[in-house]
Amino acid sequence: MSNFVVSARKYRPQRFEDVVGQQHVAGTLKNALATDHLAHAFLFTGPRGVGKTTCARILAKIINCENRTADHEACEVCSSCKAFNENASFNIIELDAASNNGVEHIRAIVEQVRFAPQHGKYKVFIIDEVHMLSPGAFNAFLKTLEEPPPYAIFILATTEKHKIIPTILSRCQIFDFRRITVHDMVLHLRNICDKEGIKAEDDALHIIAQKADGALRDALSIFDRITSFSGKNIRYDDVIENLNVLDYDYFFQITDALMAEDVPAILQLFDQILRKGFEPEIFVLGLAEHLRNILVCKDEATLSLLEVGESLRERYRRQAALAPATFLLTALNLANDCDINFKMARNKRLHVEISLIKMGHIHRAISAARAPAPAAVTEKKTPDLTSAPPQVASTPPPPVPAPLPSNATPLGKDAVLEMKAGLRQGLKKAETISLSLDSYDTAVATEEAQKAALESRLNLENATAAWQQYAGGVESPTLRQAMQLAKLKLEEKMLVVTVGMSTHRGLLMQEMSRLLDALQKELHDPWVRLRIELDEAQLESLKPPTPKRPTTVREKIDNMRDVNPFVTDLLQRFDLRPEE
What we know:
single chain, Zinc Finger, Delta Prime, domain 3, Helicase, Ruva Protein, domain 3, 10 strands, three-stranded mixed β-sheet, alpha/beta, 5 domains
């Protein structure tokens, strides 16, 4: 039988300083121990796997420790600490309320409260999953929890605080445990890898931390599973294969295809994802998360919200520089609508494909929305069918209607009026459809005319003119100076802007979204992209040349002549000849 111990148990924290992501709880409990203001009842609440039971055990061990350290941690060498570490302490009683939730179990706890500890100062009762207790058990526990003997301390732990009755809550000090961040999980997993001699890629550890969804215990369980699969070398490809996670590369490719309006490539990539066994709903959620991450990278202030590795972070930055904010917001809205209506759709694949096609035409839709409205069409008058038609000389008289059959019932006046009203309404609908088609043809013609004018407007000369026009309307003098000193060059659809100072680059990066929208509108081209580059050599070229300082007598006299022309007259009048 193997002696393998899972990481969640092997690396379970034994001190408050080792607890991951719950420094606010550990700090408060340490201060309470330092000032001897320890309550008699605690309630630890929070998501699963964040350290509630671990902190309860650490606190129970420190309370009975005979030689606490200076930072109020357990000494690990006294008899009480050794008994706790060997699971042989009679002063710490644990109860799992998930399986022991009856009145008789609480009565057994109350009975043990009556006896003082034989060794140590306190008896600590840890009740896990306390929300599972029955109403009768809660009522039987109330009096003891409110007025316990001075040597009894209760620590309750739960994941669902709302299920605990208010009379229990009012008798406890409540500590809310937070979800553990991806960054803290990655640091903890990296520490374990160093201790175990395991090589792991940063992107692989980030995937494990994201899959754990804020629970460190889940992250450690996934880590053990991946270690069993990969051995001492954990790679990103092994993690996504073992956890059935969709590769980031698919989302980057689909986003590039969406911005290029390459609908066939979009549908083929989606088909590849489905062939790998991923559900369409998982793809939609992943695409929405990817678009959100790109939008986060648009501003340096929100870059800290991106929870990925450094290599992926740089890749997100590059794609964020190419994606306009209007495109990202519209695509996010479409992805959200697709997710909301996904369960009601009968053909799930077609539902997602329609949303992807819409995303692929965002640029075209934005261009059509910005186009001027077509001229209003004069409404045609509907002829009055109740009056007699005008007689035209060249038109032959209308044929005489055939007589009604003998068994036919003549129509009444109301029926005739109803038929005329229906005919009039039908003609009006036909005219409306005709006007709609005419408007659509006009919009299409306008869009085609704009497309024809696109290529002629997109060149370096027009881009420079649009750039200088925008710079003239800027209020900030520093930003105006940065734009005026910048050098422009055009690489296909990419306008490369080179500046010589990092501060100028930062100002242009902050203004990039508004600047890009203005350039696209001025050049009539939604595909114009913008890239800001830093060239320190340009800064040196912009500095004025340093004047040479005169050293000899003749150089000084020449310098004086340049400043004041009367010096020459003075030298000639007194016949002065400056020496070298």
